[in-house]
Specification:
The structure holds three protein chains of three kinds.
Chain A (H helix, E strand, L loop, with lengths): L1 H4 L2 H17 L40 E6 L4 H16 L4 E6 L3 H11 L5 E5 L3 H6 L6 E5 L5 E6 L4 H18 L1
Parallel strand pairs in A: 1-2, 2-3
Antiparallel strand pairs in A: 1-4, 4-5
Chain B lengths: L1 H28 L3 H5 L1 H24 L6 H6 L6 H6 L5 H21 L6 H25 L24 H30 L4 H32 L10 H26 L3 H24 L12 H25 L14 H31 L9 H24 L7 H26 L5 H23 L7 H7 L2 H26 L1 E8 L3 E4 L2 E12 L3 E12 L2 E6 L2 E5 L5 E4 L1 E3 L4 E11 L4 E10 L1 H19 L2 H4 L11
Antiparallel strand pairs in B: 1-10, 2-3, 3-4, 4-5, 4-6, 6-7, 8-9, 9-10
Helix pairs in contact in B: 1-3, 1-7, 3-6, 6-7, 6-8, 7-8, 7-12, 8-9, 8-11, 9-10, 9-19, 10-11, 10-13, 11-12, 13-14, 14-16, 15-16, 16-18, 18-19
Chain C lengths: L30 H13 L16 H15 L4 H12 L14 H35 L5 H17 L1
Classes of the chains: A alpha/beta, B alpha+beta, C mainly alpha.
């Protein structure tokens, strides 16, 4: 009996090792959005192009959209720009830009030079909508369903692979509808 | 050419350690004296080639050989030579080489200072160390060689070392820490050798003890240096952040502390053998676990190395082999017999067990807190963080309770002590420490503070019980000086280490309760009051360092109108990476530090954000750490471990 | 292919973007609020950083969160409200002091449990040991004085030989 007790440390180690093994395939820095399956936060900000107007959630609820958080000071945003343009050209889903803590002038120049994948841009100069959304660094991309509920968040550069993952989710909705 | 020699030397060292892992072990199993006797020369050869390899890397750094990738990534021609050389261990590959080099150093030391060891024991111990070395050197060669080159073209100059590392701290902290981590491999190897041979007598404990104490002292010193370094270099005035990497060094230290005590009981009284073996296995395993946590990227840490799942996988395999193998051996061969000696409820044996339970629970708590986010994540239950508020809430009560037991333990003898004797010895220290603890917060602070009361009381309790016991030794002695000499070194070591614990505890209590801190905007001529000191900002000017340019502020400090010191905190910009660094300036003192750090310039350099700290008794933290380490080293100087004579009757822990 | 590796920090050190400590000036009319500000900033984790609280980090997001805390304190929000606000947006990850709930029971109550368990084991060990020892003493006659002296001498010479 007490000989069996001496196996306890070995057993505990196996449990520990299993967790460490699992841990190797987890990225501890990747945070799921706290707003997952919750509505997009209410806001009232001006669009990037028209400083005197106001946009709210009403301007995009009603159809699935991507909300892409970007800024001109963010080098990774430049990297994913091609991908965003490709998505917008494919016409599969509209992209709403959330221009995050940026300067209006610079942002407009950027869109002029690199092309504009966005249906329109929300201009969040002090980052407070970003804060409500739980943004911790651009770029981030949110997938919203037709009811304006956040269904998915992608942190970092939106690669072709990431876009494939998003498409799978969107296709799922379509098949449910049909 | 030289880097290739380094790589080649590493390959030879791998070969030698593989032979060391096999031949003497087989010789011991088959009682073949010749094969066993190969252990010593192999250990020496392995050390020699590791040394060559290490020198080759050092040479590449000193000659600015930027064709070597590792050198190009961690050095720059502008760096002062002492930082070029310590940049050897400034990154993953080189620090791993340091790890393996120190391991070969310990192996050599065991082979040199082992005349009293029977040949088969020595052969087994060195073989086990050879197994560990084989694992680590292959890890180096397969995934992390520091000798790889940029070919055919290489950068003209190096990418520079992280400026935070260009500091005295890098020169001393990692080698000390690794001496400790790797030093536990000796205790581990002795435990494995004992299990293999089945010779679990007290001699095994005696051989093992001095090695364990030295490693424990180095680890403590390494942790202390790290804490001090973080305090002055990071500019936050913090000295312990409960970061996974810090926890990774604390866990083996806690288990090592338990081991040091448990070995004492095993050696003196032949008790707790199985438990001592288990602790020896765990002390080293936790060192390996720490290596895994720091280098695999499974946890986020402020101090982590560039992480790489492939490396993580390799270390996990090493961990699985070492821990899995040793614990399997343990399960089958650990002694299951009840020891022949007896002890009563109030005896040093029982108190050592209590001490071991506390230390083990502390280590488990640190492990739990460190790995809990990983556990929760692996189970798919979300991401959580476990940080300082948790550790402080759980750790402090356990530590406080243990300190009470510490005081009792020094007054209690082996086997049995009557309750009356203990009470007679302890009532006075108890009364004095509680009284002082009650008065202190009124006298030092602004009013009663429960935390200060507890912290000061238990610290004084630890100190006063040690001193009472020490004075008691002279009650029946004829001559003070003779008795002073008769007391063994290990007794003085114990005293010093216990007092060190108390000194650290006083430091922690006071600095965390009475620290004051302010972040303020200061323009030329502005002044701020903090804890009775007046800090006057007298402007900044530009100074040039060897590889940086800095804005240096001049801040004069007055205490009730009289001049105390002028401080010069800097905001540096390093030339190569163009990154900014805060270099705090500190007026250190035994009873308080004045700590000033420079933030960002405000209003185009008209004013600066300045952080001013008042840190009472912060030096005591590290002073205590040094005392503990010295205590550990002093026990090794004990005559018993150098000669094999009978023990003096007063011999303590 | 040689990837340019992420800048490598060392034991007790940070990666490059964390090089300078965050020193910002936050004005409060009330020193009590300043104290609460410091405490909150120390106990909330910066979501973007490696492992830093929002007081020490100078990442953009940490600055934003500090500003938000300052605004909320000035607007007389309670500590609870501020913490809830952060958790709503960034999840439990921002709490350095995890909340007590079923998933964290082991974390919070584990140490106490282990301590009690350890002490119970000690008691069991001492009990059983004392019993066995008495049995040994009763069943086998212990060594006589002369025998034990002889044994002692034997051990001693043996030791000296080594």
């Amino acid at each position: 009996m007490s000989r069996l007790l001496l196996f306890i440390p070995l057993l505990l180690f196996f449990v520990l090792a299993a967790f460490l093994w699992k841990g190797l395939s987890i990225d501890p820095r990747e945070l799921p959005s706290a707003l997952l399956d919750k509505p997009f936060p209410e806001f009232s900000l001006s669009p990037l192009r028209e400083p005197e107007q106001i946009v709210t959630t009403k301007d995009f609820i009603g159809q699935p959209v991507l909300v892409n958080v970007w800024a001109t000071w963010c080098p990774s945003c430049r990297q994913e720009h091609e991908q965003l343009l490709a998505i917008s050209q494919s016409g599969e889903i509209p992209i709403i830009g959330l221009n995050y803590k940026d300067e209006r002038e610079l942002a407009l120049n950027w869109l002029q030079q690199l092309g504009n994948p966005y249906q329109f841009n929300i201009y969040d100069v002090d980052g407070m909508l970003g804060l409500d959304l739980g943004v911790y660094g651009a770029p981030e991309t949110y997938l919203l369903d037709a009811q304006g509920i956040i269904r998915y968040r992608h942190v970092g550069v939106l690669t072709a692979q990431a876009w494939q993952d998003l498409k799978v989710i969107i296709k799922g909705w379509d098949s449910v509808k049909n | 050419m030289i880097p290739e020699i380094g790589e080649f030397a590493l390959i030879i060292a791998l070969f030698l350690s593989a032979v060391l892992a096999l031949v003497p072990m087989y010789g011991a199993a088959t009682v073949n004296e010749l094969w066993m006797s190969y252990a010593k020369p192999l250990a020496k050869g392995q050390f020699l080639f590791m040394l060559i390899s290490f020198i080759c890397l050092g040479y590449a750094f000193s000659q600015d050989d930027f064709s070597v990738i590792y050198v190009a990534q961690h050095s720059n021609s502008q760096m002062p030579i002492q930082f070029k050389l310590s940049a050897i261990w400034g990154g993953h590959e080189g620090s791993l080489l340091l790890w393996a080099f120190i391991l070969s150093g310990w192996t050599l030391a065991v082979s040199l200072f082992s005349r009293s060891l029977p040949l088969d024991m020595l052969a087994r111990v060195l073989s086990v160390m050879g197994i560990i070395a084989t694992g680590f050197i292959s890890f180096l060669l397969v995934t992390s060689s520091p000798f790889l080159r940029y070919l055919p073209s290489f950068p003209e100059d190096g990418a520079d070392l992280n400026p935070l590392l260009q500091d005295f701290g890098l020169i001393v902290h990692p080698p000390m820490l690794y001496m400790g981590y790797v030093g536990f491999s000796v205790a581990f190897s002795f435990a494995i050798a004992a299990l293999l041979s089945g010779r679990l007598d007290t001699a095994w404990a005696r051989w093992s003890r001095s090695w364990t104490n030295i490693a424990w002292a180095f680890l403590g010193l390494g942790i202390t240096l790290g804490s001090w370094w973080a305090y002055y270099e990071l500019g936050w005035g913090g000295w312990w952040f409960w970061d996974p990497v810090e926890n990774a060094s604390l866990m083996p230290w806690l288990v090592g502390t338990a081991l040091v005590h448990s070995l004492a009981a095993t050696e003196k009284r032949g008790v707790f053998k199985s438990w001592t073996l288990l602790l020896a296995i765990f002390a080293f395993s936790l060192s390996l676990l720490g290596t895994f946590l720091v280098r695999s990227g499974v946890l986020t840490s402020v101090h982590a190395f560039a992480s790489d799942p492939e490396r993580g996988f390799f270390i996990l395999m090493l961990l699985a082999i070492t821990m899995g193998g040793s614990l399997t051996l343990y399960a089958f061969k650990a002694p299951n017999v009840k020891s022949e000696s007896n002890f009563s409820w109030l005896s040093r044996e029982v108190l050592l067990l209590v001490n071991n339970v506390f230390l083990t629970v502390m280590a488990v708590t640190v492990l739990l807190g460190t790995l809990y986010p990983l556990l929760i994540d692996a189970l798919g239950a979300g991401k959580i963080s476990v940080g300082p508020p948790y550790f402080n809430a759980v750790f402090v009560p356990i530590m406080g309770t243990m300190a009470v037991a510490m005081g009792i333990s020094v007054a209690v003898r082996w086997r049995e002590t009557s309750t009356k004797v203990v009470i007679d010895k302890l009532w006075l220290p108890a009364a004095i420490s509680i009284l002082c603890g009650l008065i202190f917060p009124f006298f030092y602070g602004s009013g009663f503070d429960f935390r200060v009361f507890i912290g000061i009381s238990v610290s004084l309790w630890v100190i006063s019980t040690v001193i009472t016991e020490f004075i008691g030794k002279f009650r029946n002695a004829q001559s003070f000086s003779i008795k002073l000499k008769q007391l063994p070194f290990s007794y003085y070591g114990m005293m010093l280490a216990h007092i060190g614990v108390a000194v650290t505890a006083i430091g922690i209590t006071l600095v965390s309760t009475y620290s004051e801190e302010r972040d303020i905007r200061m323009a030329k001529g502005d002044s701020v009051e903090l804890a009775g000191y007046q800090f006057i900002f007298q402007g900044t000017h530009v100074v040039k360092g060897p590889n940086y340019v800095a804005d240096q502020a001049t801040i004069e400090v007055l205490e009730s109108g009289t001049f105390v010191v002028t401080l010069h905190p800097e905001k540096r910009r390093y030339n190569v990476k163009r990154n900014m660094m805060t270099e705090a300036d500190i007026d250190a003192g035994l009873f308080r530090d004045l700590y000033v750090a420079l933030g960002e310039p405000l209003n185009n350099g008209e004013a600066w954000a300045v952080r001013v700290h008042y840190k009472p008794y912060v030096r005591w933290l590290w002073l205590g750490g040094i005392l503990m380490a010295l205590g550990g080293l002093l026990t090794v100087a004990d005559k018993r471990y150098r000669q094999s004579k009978a023990e003096p009757e007063d011999a303590y822990v | 292919m040689l990837k340019i590796k992420v800048l490598i920090g060392f034991i007790l050190l940070l990666s490059s973007f964390l090089l300078s400590a965050a020193i910002d000036v936050y004005q409060f009319d009330d020193p009590e609020k300043e104290g609460r500000f410091q405490k909150l900033a120390f106990e909330l984790r910066c979501p973007k950083c490696q492992n830093q609280n929002i007081a020490d980090s100078n990442a953009e997001i940490a600055k934003d969160l500090r500003t938000k805390i300052q605004q909320m304190l000035i607007a007389d929000k309670s500590d609870m409200e501020i913490v809830d606000y952060m958790v709503e947006r960034y999840g439990d990850f921002v709490l350095y002091e995890p909340r007590v709930k079923p998933q964290t029971y082991l974390l919070w109550y584990g140490p106490a449990l282990f301590l009690v368990l350890g002490l119970i084991i000690i008691i069991l060990i001492i009990r059983s040991r004392n019993k066995t020892y008495q049995q040994i003493n009763e069943n086998e006659s212990s060594l006589s004085d002369s025998e034990s002296e002889a044994l002692h001498a034997l051990l001693k010479t043996n030791q000296e030989k080594k």
